[in-house]
Amino acid sequence: MRQWYYLLRMPLPRTPSPEDIHAGFLAAIYATPDVDAPRLVYMDWLLERRNPRGHFIQLQFERHQNGDLPTAAARKERELLRQKYADWLGSAAELIVLDTTSPTFERGFLHAAAIRLPSNADPALARAPAFSTMAELSGSTNDLRWFLGVDATDEGFRSNLRALQTVIPDRVAVDSLGTWMGLLSKYVGLAGVRFEDATLMRRDGKRVLQIQTHLLAATRTHWPSLLTSVDGRGWTLELASYRYTEQGRSQDQTLASDLARRFPAFRHELVTGIPEQRKAR
Predict the structure, then answer these.
(1) What is the dihedral of CA 234, 239, 244, 250, to 10 degrees?
(2) H or E stretch covering 105
C-alpha cells in the first residue's frame, strides 16, 4: 500500500509545450545541418501553425530542388527574409553584416555570412546556435581569427560550428590557415597589396580560401610565388576580386587577365588614383 501511495504522489510526465517542441526541432536541425529530414518535419509543423517561416523553408526547398523560383515566389522569399532574418538568427544577427550578399539562407537556414565585430564584442555572440548551419564565412583577418578562436581547443571547435567543421575540422586546419595568413602578410608587405576580406568555404572536397585584394603597386613577380606557396598546405587559394590603380596600368591589366584565367570566379576593376589614407584623429 505504501508503494502505491508514493506512486500516486509522483508528478505525471509533463506534456511538452509548443516552445519545447520548437526548441527540439531547432536542436535537431543544428545538430545535423547536412540532413534535410529535420528541416522538412519542422517546415510541416510550422505550416500547420501558419508560421511564415514554414512558408520560407518551403520556398527555399523548392529553389534547392528546382534551381530557381517563379518571380512571385522569389519576391515572397526575399520579403520574408528581409522581415524576419533577425528573428531567425537571434543573437547571431549582431555579428552578421547585412548587405546584398550577406546573410545567405539555404534550405531555410543560415548558409553563408560575412561577420563584422562590434566594439568589445561579447564572445557569447560567437556561440549563437544559428551559426551551426553556416558553411561559408567571410570577414577581415582579425574578425575571422576572433570568431574562430572563441572556445577553440586542440580537439576541435565549439558545437555551434558544425557545418563549418567541414572547412575547418580541427586545430591542424586552423594552424594551416594561420600559416596561409602569415604568408599573405609577408607578401602584402612585398607587393604593396592591401588584404581586404577572406571567405572560408568547401568546394569539390577541398577547403577554399577566397580573398579580395587591392593592389596599390602591383608587380607580376610576387603573386605567382604567393600562389605556389599557399597551394599544397591543405587550402586552395582563390582570388575573388582584384582592384588596382592607374599606376602601371598596362602591367596590372595583364596580371588581371592571367589571374582571371586561373580563377573562374575572379573579377577585377580599375580604381582611379590611390585611395586617400584615413587621417589620424
Answers:
(1) 100
(2) strand 104-106
Whether 113 contacts 138, CB under 8 Å: yes
For 176-206, what is each residue's pLDDT tens digit? 666 656 555 555 544 445 556 778 887 777 7
Place of cell 545541418: 33
d(CA 273, CA 247): 8
Residue 153 is classified by DSSP as: B
- 68-77 burial: b if 16+ Cβ within 10 Å, else e: ebeeeeeebb
| Rounded alpha-carbon distances, angstroms, from residue 37 to 61, 72, 168 | 12, 27, 25
Residue 11 per-residue DSSP state: P
Is residue 150 within 8 Å of residue 123, measured between CB atoms?
yes
- The ranges assigned to domains in the chain are 167-274
Residues 124-182 pLDDT 10s: 999 999 999 999 998 887 788 788 877 766 555 677 888 887 777 666 666 666 665 65
Beta bridge partners of 199: 138, 210
End-to-end CA, the chain: 83
Q: Is 195 helix (H, G, I), strand (E, B) or coil?
A: strand
Mutual orientation of helices 222-230 and 171-191 as an angle, nearest 10°?
170
State residue 114 phi and psi, 5-degree precision: -100, 140
Strand partners, 208: 201, 236
Please state the pTM of the whole predicted model. 0.75
